[in-house]
Amino acid sequence: MPRSTSYESAHRESLLDPTAFWGRAAEAIDWYVPPATVLDADAPSAPRWFAGGELNTCHNTLDRHVLAGHGDRTALIHDSPVTGTVRGYTYRELLDEVARTAGMLTELGVGKGDTVVLYLPMVPEAAIAMLACARIGAVHSVVFGGFAPPELAARIDHARPKVVLSASCGIEVDRVIAYKPLLDAALDRCEHRPDACVILQRPQAQAELRAGRDLDWADAVRSAPAADCVPVAATDPLYILYTSGTTGSPKGVVRDNGGHAVALRWSMEHIYDARPGEVFWTASDVGWVVGHSYIVYAPLLAGCTTLLYEGKPVGTPDAGAFWRVVAQHGVRTLFTAPTAIRAIKRDDPKGAHLAEHDVSSLRALFLAGERLDPDTYHWARELLDIPVVDHWWQTETGWPIVANPLGIEALPAKSGSPGKPMPGWDLRVLDEAGEPCPPGTDGTLALRLPLPPGSLTTLYRDDERFAATYLSRYPGHYLTGDGGHLDEDGHVFVMGRLDDVINVAGHRLSTGAMEEVLADHPDVAECAVVGVADELKGELPLGLVVLRQGVDRPAPEVEAELRTLVRSRIGAVATPRRVVTVPRLPKTRSGKILRGTVRAIADGRDYTVPATIEDIGVLDEITETLRAGDR
Ligand code: COA
Ligand code: AMP
C-alpha cells in the first residue's frame, strides 16, 4: 500500500474518491474472494464496504503472519501484576490456542452467525476467545467485567448467545472478585438460556460448576480438535458491542468483518505509526471498544506484539507500574485513557518513578475515551518528552475520527484539541437548523455519510433505533452525540456529550440508566442524574432525588441505599459520588428537567438562568443543599 505523503492529500482523496482510497487499503488484507465493489453506498441502512469480498478476520490476525514465516514472533504478552505473572505467546502458539478454542466452540454447536457472550477479566483467554469466534464466523459480544448481573443479563437476553464464556474470578488490585456468582445471578434473571457456559478456573478462585450447563474451560479445550478458518462475507458481522445510550437499554453496535479489518490495519500504520514486530500496548479493558480495536484486533492485524495488562496504573504496586511495563517489554506505543495518566500524576506528580525505568523504547503516547485536560497533556508531554496524541472516537466508529496521523505526518498539536479529522471522516459542525457553524462556534459534531469502513453497520436487531438515534437528526449525516467546534486551521475541539451519556474514568455510562435505577426505589418520587466534574475520573454521577410524600426515614439512609442500588444494578464503576435529596427538581415550564443547570451548579460554574424555568427559587435550594453536603 503506497503511503500518503501529506495529511491534506490523504484526507482529500479519501472523501473525493473513497473507492480508490479504501480499495488500496484493502490490498493489505488477505481475501479468499476479493471484493466486487469497494463501496455500495445505496445499501438500505448504511453503506456496505467490500461487498462480495470473502475473508476471515482471524486468518488475517494470526495464520497470515505464521504463513509468512513470523510464527516465532511474540503475538501477545499477558502482564499481570495482580497475579504476579507474565506470559508470552508467539504467533504460532496463539494460533494453536485460538484454533483449539474455536474447535471447542464448534463442538458445542456454535457456527457461523451464532452469538457468543464473553464475560471475562483481562486474561489471555479473552483475546483468544474473541479470535476463536472470528475464526468460525461466530459473532462475539464481550461484556465488560465491571458490569453487575442485571446489565449482563440485559445483554445476554438481547444477544441470545449459544454459549457464554466466563471465568471464576477477576482481580481488582488485591481483591478477588468472584465472577461466577455474578454470571449465575445474571442467568437466573435471563429469559434466554445459553446451551453451555464455559468457565475458566483461575487459581485465585474455584467456581462451582452447574452440571448439565457449565463446563471447565481447560478440559473442554484440551479435548477439542483445532478448527480451520471459515470464510465469511466482508459484510457479515464480526462482533456486537453494547454501549450506553440515553436510556437503560444498551445499544448493540454491530461491526462487520471486511471494513473493520481494512480500517484497523490502515489506522495502525497511518495514525499510530506502528510497524510489524513492535510492541503496542493499549492499557484499557477488552470490554470496551478501545480494547476490541487496539488490544486485540489492530495490533495483530498489523503483526505487532500486543500487550494485555491485568493491573491498574496505580496500586499494582505503585505509580511506576506503566513505566515498568514499558521498560520490561520494550513498548513503543502506549495508548490509555487520560484518567490513568491523572492517577499516575496524582500519586507521583514529579515523575520520580519514571527515573527508575528505562522507557527509551517509548515513541508516542495516545490518549482517548474522555476529554484530555490541558494540565494532564502538558504533564505527560514534559515528563515523557515524546508526542502525546489526544484522539477522539467512540464505540460506534471503531477507530479514530479525529487524531494526529503520525504515520503520515505529525501535525502541529494544539492544546485542547485532539487534532484533525482522519481520512474517511467528513466532519461537520452543525447548528440547530443543520447549517454549518463558522469556525470558533460550537455546534453538533456530525459526520457526513457514508461513514468509512470499520464504523458500525447497524444496531443489533434494531435497524429502526439505529436510524432514529444516529441518522434522523440531520439527514445525510451521522450524529456523534458530541458537541464542539472547528478553529480557523481545521483543528477540532470536542466540548462533550450533548446527550445523557457520561464518561467516568473512561467508562461510558448512561445517566438515563442510573435514573431508571433510582426511580425504581419505592421512596423516590422523582430523580435526575448528571455527570459532575471530577479531578481524577473526569466525571462522576451525581443523583438528585425528590422523596415521596410520607417517607419518614432519614434522608441519608435512603441516599446511601440508592448509591448501593446503582452499584449493584449497574456496577461499581457507576457508583454515584453522591445522591442528594432535594425538595424539588429544576424544570422548564413544559416539565423538562434542567440537567445542564444542575451540572453547572454542582461544578460551581457560572450559568445563565434559563428563560423557560418554571420556578427560579429551586436553583437556590439546590445550590444550598449541594453546598451543605460539601461542608
Ligand atoms: N471488574 C470488576 N470490578 C471492576 C472492574 C472490573 N473489570 N473495573 C473496575 N471495577 C471496580 C473497581 O474495583 C472499583 O470498585 P470499588 O468501588 O469497590 O473500589 C470500581 O469498579 C470503580 O473502578 P474505577 O472507576 O476503575 O476506579 P478505581 O478507583 O478502582 O481506579 C483508576 C481509578 C483511575 C486507577 C482507574 O479508573 C483506571 O485505571 N482508569 C483507566 C480507565 C480505562 O482504562 N478506561 C478504558 C477506556 S479507554
Ligand atoms: P466510548 O464509546 O466508550 O469510546 O465513548 C465515546 C465518547 O467518549 C465520545 O462520544 C466522547 O464523548 C468521549 N471521548 C472519547 N474520546 C475523547 C476525546 N479524545 N476527547 C473528548 N471526548 C472523548
Automatic annotation (TrEMBL):
PROSITE patterns per record: AMP_BINDING
Taxonomic classification: Bacteria, Bacillati, Actinomycetota, Actinomycetes, Kitasatosporales
UniProt cross-references to InterPro entries, sorted A to Z: ACAS_N, AMP-bd_C, AMP-bd_C_sf, AMP-binding_CS, AMP-dep_synth/lig_dom, ANL_N_sf
Domain AMP-dependent synthetase/ligase: 67-448
Protein name: Propionyl-CoA synthetase
Domain Acetyl-coenzyme A synthetase N-terminal, first and last residues per copy: 7-60
Similarity field: Belongs to the ATP-dependent AMP-binding enzyme family.
Source organism of the structure: Streptomyces atriruber
Domain of life: Bacteria
